[in-house]
Amino acid sequence: FFDVEQGADLKENEGSKAVVGIRYTEGKVFDKVANIGDKIKIEGGSFKIIGVLERVGNPFDDSAIIIDKELMKKIYNTGDEVSIIHAKVENVEDIEDVKSEIERKLRKVRGEKEGKETFQVTTAEQLLQSFSTVFGIVQAVLVGIAAISLLVGGIGIANTMYTSVVERTKEIGIMKAIGAKNSDVLLLFLFESGLLGIAGGVIGIVIGLGLSKTAEYYATVSLGTNLLQASASPWIIFGALAFSFIIGTASGMLPAMQASRLKPV
C-alpha cells in the first residue's frame, strides 16, 4: 500500500528490521534525524532502518513504522487481532464492487448478518465525501461572514457618499447652473461610489492572497507536502473587482439620486 522511496522494502520474517515514514529522515519525529542504517528502539527492541516510505502528505502516515507482523504480535501481545487492513484496487471504477465483496466475505468468515457487522469497510471516496461535507460547512460560514462584510461595506460607502453630497452641495448647484443635467450628476456620483468599491476590492484581494499564501507556506512547512496550494486565476481577480464595482455603485445609488435632484438655488 505504501511505496518505498529509499532503500529496500520489508520482506516477511526479516526480523529486527524496519521501514519508516519520511518524517523520521527530516527530524520531525525524533530530536535526531533517522536515516537508512540507523537503529530505532520499539518497546525495548532494536530495529535497523532498511527503507524510507514515499511522502503520503499527512503526519500520521508519514510517521509510520513498518516491522515484521509476527514480531509485532510478540512485542504487543495482540494475538490474531488486526485493527486495519489496507487494500488497493487495480481499477478505480471497481472500488464499490470490491468494497461489497470484502464486506460479504468478512460477514461470512465472522458469521455476522448484514447491518449488524462489528467491522467497517471505508473507501477513499467516502473519506472524500466526509471532507467535502466539513469543507462545505466551513464554506457556508465563510460565505455568511462575507455577506455581512458586504452589507457593512455597502452601508459604509452609502454613508460616505451621503457626506460627500452634503459637502459638495455648492459645487452641484454651480454645475446645474451652467447646464449639467440630473443624469450627469447621477453618473458622476455613481462612478465615484464605484471607485470606492474597487478600492475596497483591491485591498481585499491583496489581503486574501496574502493570507492564503501564508496558509500555504505554513501547511508546507508543517505537513511537509505541497498538496495544499493557494491559487487565483486572473478571471477570479477580475470578477472580484467587477463585483466590488457593482456593490459600490449599488451602495451609492440613493446618495447619487439625492445629489442629482438638488436645485441650483
What does this structure look like?
It is a single chain. The chain contains seven helices and five strands, in the order E-E-E-E-E-H-H-H-H-H-H-H. Helix 3 (124-167) runs antiparallel to helix 5, helix 5 (182-223) crosses helix 6 and helix 5 (182-223) runs antiparallel to helix 7. It starts with a strand and ends in a 5-residue tail after the last helix. The longest helix has 44 residues, at 124-167. The protein has helices spanning 69-76, 95-110, 124-167, 169-177, 182-223, 234-251, 253-260, and strands at residues 4-7, 17-20, 39-42, 45-53, 65-66. With 265 residues, the protein is an alpha+beta fold. Strands 1, 2, 3, 4 and 5 form a five-stranded mixed β-sheet that branches. Strand 3 and strand 4 (45-53) form a beta hairpin. Helix content is 55%, strand content 9%. The chain is elongated, with a radius of gyration of 32 Å. The model has no long low-confidence stretch (mean pLDDT 85).
Comma- or semicolon-separated keywords:
about 260 residues, alpha+beta, elongated, five-stranded mixed sheet
In one word, what is the shape? elongated
The helix-and-strand class reads: alpha+beta
Q: How many separate helices? A: 7
Major sheet description: 5 strands, mixed
Q: How are the SSEs placed, and which strands pair?
A:
Elements: E1 4-7, E2 17-20, E3 39-42, E4 45-53, E5 65-66, H1 69-76, H2 95-110, H3 124-167, H4 169-177, H5 182-223, H6 234-251, H7 253-260
Parallel strand pairs: 2-4
Antiparallel strand pairs: 1-4, 2-5, 3-4
Helix pairs in contact: 3-5, 3-6, 3-7, 5-6, 5-7
